[in-house]
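Ticket #4471: complex job returned nothing on first submit. Input attached below:
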Amino acid sequence: KQEVTQIPAALSVPEGENLVLNCSFTDSAIYNLQWFRQDPGKGLTSLLLIQSSQREQTSGRLNASLDKSSGRSTLYIAASQPGDSATYLCAPYGGNQFYFGTGTSLTVIP
Amino acid sequence: GAGVSQTPSNKVTEKGKYVELRCDPISGHTALYWYRQSLGQGPEFLIYFQGTGAADDSGLPNDRFFAVRPEGSVSTLKIQRTERGDSAVYLCASSSTGADEQFFGPGTRLTVL
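Support reply: We reran it on our side without changes. The output follows.
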């Protein structure tokens, strides 16, 4: 069964910092990997989807990379803002489902 | 266009009762997923529909849980004889195909007293 680990579990940074969130997964046989953000008490918002054949994907201040063979993905957030405060979840897709880790809780301090 | 919607947003019920949770996916999306999320955890897969049929129901925890999607659009998750351990947020997601980008609804918070 796919196991997903996200490090760190929680992160607090001052506004304006660049930061990296890490995701590792145990089964490299995935079709793609999606990054989400979740605000307290809300559903998940899709940020980026990386296909298994891609190495990275960019959207605005976000850049996600994927190294399928080593079972790793990173989410890079540039010039962080207080509105980026949320829990970030990575989810590799394989075997008819997305597998989720417990996420990284990010707080950006004004 | 409209996103994924779920009703009700909150449901409080008593132990032993039957509940139904509804999901309206994005129009045209053939794939629909149900997940369950407990506090402090990531979503946990329950069931995946491709069209009207359940392509994978391996995540349903026991036979008290059942889901349908009779016309390939709206789906209903049904829980019989609810238990306190069923309390969680139930999330629905849809995608245009099974392995495509998933879009989540806001969830239904189920509380079993």
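Chain A has no helices and eleven strands. Closing as resolved unless it happens again.
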